[in-house]
């Protein structure tokens, strides 16, 4: 009895005296029962198959994601963002290395002047994904973004695949933008793009070491962890300057346009357009960061749709205009793949303009890194809340209201990759990861609309599962046939009707079980189904090397899941719900739901 009383007193003291943020004990990293000693770990490994079956079938609840898991961070994030902040965060997060670097790279190597069509194709795919993200972010306003949404609708294992790709994309994306920052910085100094990199005898693609990229990642991370509000102010200023540079690029580009540069328009045919579209999809990456800021948004149900849909609509138009202006200024064979816009202006006699473009590009890439540091860390924070990575990374600092540990995890890894890897190695890998997550988000949205536990009849669940499998497999078939026979048509007479009929069957034969409370994706199931086929088609347009790298990363992820993530999440799911030291109030929970 005395021991019980003492334990209770100890728990009360922990509540009265919150633990220090800076702590490093084993319990902070591995608190789960499976990792207490070698014996418990061996016991956990012996139950791997049973535990996998349990976790693969488990799904989270909206309330758990919104309320219970936030307690794992011990301190709340500060609600300080409006729709205006989110709109500018959208500009800052998306417009950067993609448009300034990948446009020239892909126009030169794959699409030619038809790069504008590549941006249209990837833009349609991105906007369909934005619709899905917006509905989820309004319904489940948490820092976990797509990870949380997929965990609720598709289950724990699907969420782990998402988490692995989010972390992979965050690390590779940050590294890619930091490498591009160095290229434009050297252009601003009137030097060769690789002149400030250290040349080594390592394998091609990994032989140019980039210490400047590492420094930029460190500096932007320090700003991001200091304060979300302060970061928003900085982003406003930098993004406004960048938008003025973009306006200059578009106007000046068309002023020096030569329509003869658009011939031949499709030098590598339709295949070149879609190969480029799959790569430049990376240029639209970052919009999902807006969804991760839901916990810091004053009114998620109003602010997120305005900020996310508004910024992405404008960005899509801007990208198409910028791609067209570049293609009309300079012949695609003469475009510099490393600093396309700067060199293009130099070629039309505006040598001074290349410095303005380089400065604007640097500011754009700086905001991408800055906003990325915020969004990527919030992904990692929520992933840590469910113990898929050590819960130490879920902690929010009591003074700054930011997840410092999670920021360090992503950015230190990005810095290591950026030091060694070139942009083309990173971009294709990132595109596979981004497209896969977007496809899974569309599937999750269809599941959310047509299946509710305890309400949907089993026969309807089986029908939905079957129709979704037909949509996915027919989309894979379309993509595979395109890759094997770009000039053929017979295969499409099978795959396209199958996709259409399966989508039509969902629309006609299955009732929608859930209606969005505030904002919902229009034309369900057609828009989500179209998102699935476009994302898979673009994935199939990528080269084999990208999938080999992605496959290697996936094997590493699965090994990690079997050895650690599975057992940590299994123990986490079975521990009794308890109140931990937290500053999250009931009023905040109600705000999150509003």
TrEMBL record:
One of its GO terms (cellular component) is plasma membrane. The chain crosses the membrane at residues 80-102, 114-136, 157-181, 208-226, 233-257, 269-287, 308-332, 352-375, 435-452, 464-483, 489-511, 518-540, 546-568. InterPro entries: AA/rel_permease1, CAT_C. It comes from Nicotiana attenuata (Coyote tobacco). GO terms for molecular function: L-glutamate transmembrane transporter activity; L-lysine transmembrane transporter activity. Residues 519-568 form the Cationic amino acid transporter C-terminal domain. Keywords: Amino-acid transport, Membrane, Transmembrane, Transmembrane helix, Transport. It is a multi-pass membrane protein. PANTHER family: CATIONIC AMINO ACID TRANSPORTER 5 (PTHR43243:SF22), INNER MEMBRANE TRANSPORTER YGJI-RELATED (PTHR43243). Belongs to the amino acid-polyamine-organocation (APC) superfamily. Cationic amino acid transporter (CAT) (TC 2.A.3.3) family. It is found in: Membrane. This is Cationic amino acid transporter 5. It comes from the Eukaryota.
């Amino acid at each position: 009895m005395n021991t019980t009383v003492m334990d209770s007193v100890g728990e009360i003291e922990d509540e009265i005296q919150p633990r220090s943020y800076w702590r490093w004990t084993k319990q902070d990293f591995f608190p789960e029962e499976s990792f207490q000693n070698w014996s418990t770990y061996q016991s956990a490994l012996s139950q791997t198959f049973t535990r996998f079956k349990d976790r693969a079938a488990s799904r989270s609840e909206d309330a758990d994601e919104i309320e219970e898991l936030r307690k794992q961070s011990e301190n709340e994030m500060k609600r300080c963002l409006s729709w205006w902040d989110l709109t500018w965060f959208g500009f800052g997060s998306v417009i950067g290395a993609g448009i300034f670097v990948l446009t020239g790279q892909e126009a030169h190597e794959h699409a030619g002047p038809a790069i504008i069509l590549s941006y249209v194709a990837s833009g349609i795919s991105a906007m369909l994904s934005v619709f899905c993200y917006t509905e989820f972010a309004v319904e489940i306003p948490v820092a976990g973004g797509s990870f949380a949404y997929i965990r609720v609708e598709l289950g724990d294992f699907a969420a782990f695949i998402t988490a692995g790709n989010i972390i992979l994309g965050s690390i590779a994306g940050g590294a890619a933008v930091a490498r591009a920052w160095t290229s434009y910085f050297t252009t601003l100094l009137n030097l060769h793009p690789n002149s400030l990199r250290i040349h080594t005898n390592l394998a091609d693609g990994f032989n140019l070491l980039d210490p400047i990229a590492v420094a930029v990642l460190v500096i932007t991370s320090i700003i991001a962890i200091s304060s979300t509000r302060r970061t928003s102010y900085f982003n406003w200023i930098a993004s406004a300057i960048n938008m003025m540079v973009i306006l200059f690029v578009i106007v000046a580009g068309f002023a020096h346009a030569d329509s003869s540069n658009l011939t031949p328009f499709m030098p590598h045919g339709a295949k070149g357009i879609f190969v480029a579209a799959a790569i430049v999809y990376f240029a639209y990456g970052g919009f999902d960061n807006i969804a991760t800021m839901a916990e810091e948004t004053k009114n998620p149900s109003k602010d997120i749709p305005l900020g996310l849909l508004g910024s992405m609509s404008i960005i899509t138009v801007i990208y198409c205009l910028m791609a067209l202006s570049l293609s009309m200024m300079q012949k695609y064979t003469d475009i510099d793949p490393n600093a396309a816009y700067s060199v293009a202006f130099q070629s039309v006699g505006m040598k001074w303009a290349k410095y303005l473009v380089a400065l604007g590009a640097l500011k754009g890439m700086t905001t991408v890194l800055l906003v990325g540091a915020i969004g990527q860390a919030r992904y990692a924070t929520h992933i840590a809340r469910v113990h898929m990575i050590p819960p130490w990374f879920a902690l929010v600092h009591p003074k700054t209201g930011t997840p410092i540990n999670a920021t360090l995890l992503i950015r230190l890894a990005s810095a290591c990759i950026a030091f060694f890897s070139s942009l083309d190695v990173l971009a294709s890998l990132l595109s596979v990861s981004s497209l896969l997550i977007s496809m899974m988000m569309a599937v999750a949205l269809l599941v959310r609309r047509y299946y509710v536990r305890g309400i949907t009849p089993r026969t309807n669940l089986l029908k939905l599962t079957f129709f979704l499998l037909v949509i996915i497999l027919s989309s894979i078939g379309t993509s595979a046939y395109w890759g094997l026979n770009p000039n053929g048509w017979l295969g499409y007479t099978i795959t396209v009707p199958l996709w259409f009929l399966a989508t039509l069957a969902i629309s006609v034969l299955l009732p929608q079980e859930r209606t969005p409370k505030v904002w919902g994706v229009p034309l369900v199931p057609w828009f989500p189904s179209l998102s699935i086929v476009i994302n898979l088609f673009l994935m199939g347009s990528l080269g084999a090397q990208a999938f080999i790298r992605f496959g290697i990363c996936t094997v590493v992820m699965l090994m990690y899941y079997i050895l650690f993530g599975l057992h940590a999440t299994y123990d986490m799911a079975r521990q009794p719900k308890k109140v931990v030291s937290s500053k999250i109030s009931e009023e905040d929970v109600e705000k999150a739901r509003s």
